[in-house]
Amino acid sequence: TRPGTRDEICLQNRQESFEQAPMYVAVMTYLGYGIVTLFGYVRDFLRAVGLEKCHVAQERDEQKDFVPLYQDFENFYTRNLYMRVRDNWNRPICSLPGPVFDLMERVSDDYNWTFRLTGRTIHNVINVGSYNYLGFAENNADFLKTVADTTCQFGVGVCSTRQEMGNLSIHEELEKLVANFLGVESSMTFGMGFATNSMNIPALVGKGCLILSDELNHTSLILGARLSGATIRVFKHNNMHSLEKMLREAVCSGQTRTHRPWKKILIIVEGIYSMEGSVVRLPEIIALKKKYKAYLYLDEAHSIGAVGPSGRGVTELFDVDPTDVDVMMGTFTKSFGASGGYIAGKKELVDYLRSHSHSAVYASAMSPPVTEQIIRALKCLMGKDGSTEGIRRIRQLAENSRYFRARLKEMGFIIYGSDDSPVVPILLYMPGKVVAFAREMLDRRIGVVVVGFPATPITEARARFCLSAAHTRDMLNQVLHHLNEVGDRLCLKFSRRKYSSWPDLCEETDFELDS
Asked: Pathway membership of this protein (predicted)?
């Protein structure tokens, strides 16, 4: 039996942290963006009068009378703000992106407009930025033997769609395994996770339908909703009052001008939100969906494999029936160390998408070695490989997530999200601190991901840490040690809450199960 009742589990996962920063932080953040914007206009003026070299793309002289291909103001942010800090992104990796990786050193001689490699390699950088939640991004020859055998048998590419000559036996094996793992009737897989959302939502809804979308949904969901032609309304993040108000209005008023009933009402949410680290309030959304006769589309890109006692995602975390979710979507790019995505649910749904989804009809079939990598990861999680390695990784990830979050709170950082989430955002706020933080951490051989406006609200720039089952306690302690020092040096500890000291929960050996 699973530990805890449904109400206890729900209460536990509602305890999410979204602490607000002091007022002076918001003022300084706006002031910082104002200063860099002002300097941007000054630099644009210097470029216009020829006192500074212009590196941006421009039309040729003979095209000056045409409608501009490159809108000057639209690129203002890129050339004047992003370009100054571009060295913190797109860093070239030259090793396996596991818990540690090697980085190719690069420098710029023109303020980040171009880069050149120095030939030096930065070794053993601790990786806290990749979505390698269960550590399946690995190169252990013993673990990858079946992947190597599949490559020898089927080759690397299929060169055809599933409906033509690209439907392999391992594709069908994978789909049966996914359906069995999720506890639903059927599933289908796709070669690209982003396209799983953007190309399947238009096949499910269209004109005359209503989409209710969480305000923090991923870009792939937003694009799919826009491509569908359906009416889109956005509700506040994880706010059940906002969602129910929209559902009630949609049912009572119908379509905007005709007031005819909506053909379909589709609620779109994510299991774990990748920028906030928050977990969807699934039981309440299911209750509202049933009450107002709507459909539910659940994106488990970051939650499948990463949460739940056996890694089956938020449906297992909240102990809800998977069949209560009409469309279950997930990706294999994170917990499974591969690529692609899946749609799962009733057999009628999957059969419909096989013939109506653009991603199914026109896209090339999933690569055989990638397919086998997902199969071996699923079998490991389900115990079908005869070991307890899968459950050990799931428990280790949960332990790492809670330990890391508790230590950060104790240090005084403002972090977002649920204690169960392996996505841990640390709020940095000010643009200058974001850049300094990323560079300082790399100097200490820790690879982090920093995110700012326009990917986040202007006052909520952050560093996003993604934890892995492959991280050892020593690695986490090393990262926490440097975070503590950098936090003091850059004055990043904005939290006004007091947390009790968090004892060491247990050693890693406590999670080694007997065979």
From this structure: Sphingolipid metabolism; Lipid metabolism; sphingolipid metabolism
Per the structure block, which two tokens stand in for 251?
A: 């049912």
Q: Which amino acid is at 211?
A: I
The CATH number of whichever domain residue 209 belongs to comes to 3.40.640.10
Q: Is the pTM of this model over 0.85?
A: yes
Final residue before a domain boundary, out of 367, 382, 397:
382
Of 331, 364, 382, which closes a domain? 382
Three-class secondary structure assignment of 282-302 = HHHHHHHHHHCCCEEEEECCC
- Which residues pair with residue 343 across a beta bridge? 188, 329
Q: Are strands 116-127 and 100-107 parallel, antiparallel or unpaired?
A: antiparallel
Helix or strand holding residue 118 (H, E): strand 116-127
- Strands ordered across the beta sheet of 210-214: 186-190, 341-345, 327-331, 295-299, 265-270, 210-214, 231-235
| Same-domain pairing of 280 and 348 | yes
Tokens of 431: 């643009």
Tokens 């499948």: give the residue: 304
Instruction: Give CA–CA dist 136/334, Å, rounded.
Output: 9
Residue at 508 is within a domain: no
Tell me, yes or no, whether 7 lies in a domain.
no
Q: What is the radius of gyration, based on Cα positions, of the chain?
A: 24
**Unique residue bearing structure tokens 């307890």:** 388
Is residue 106 one of the residues assigned to a domain?
Answer: yes
With the CA atoms of 347, 353, 355 and 357 taken in that order, what torsion angle do they form, in degrees rounded to the nearest 10? -170
Domain range for 267: 141-382
Rounded Cα–Cα distance for residues 179 and 346 (Å): 10
Query: Is residue 464 situated within a structural domain?
Result: yes
DSSP per-residue letters across 207-242: TT-EEEEETT--HHHHHHHHHHT-EEEEE-TT-HHH
DSSP 99: S
Is 373 in the same domain as 438? no
Are 168 and 235 members of one domain?
yes
- pLDDT tens digits, the chain, 515 residues: what are they? 344 454 544 444 446 778 888 899 989 999 999 999 999 999 888 988 888 887 776 677 777 777 776 666 668 888 888 888 999 999 999 999 999 999 999 999 988 889 999 999 999 999 999 999 999 999 988 889 999 999 999 999 999 998 899 899 999 999 999 999 999 999 999 999 999 999 999 999 999 999 999 999 999 999 999 999 999 999 999 999 999 999 999 999 999 889 999 999 999 999 999 999 999 999 999 999 999 999 999 999 999 999 999 999 999 999 999 999 999 999 999 999 999 999 999 999 999 999 999 988 999 999 999 999 999 999 999 999 999 999 999 999 999 999 999 999 999 999 999 998 999 999 999 989 999 999 999 999 999 999 988 788 888 999 999 999 999 999 999 999 999 999 999 999 998 887 655 444 444 444 444 43
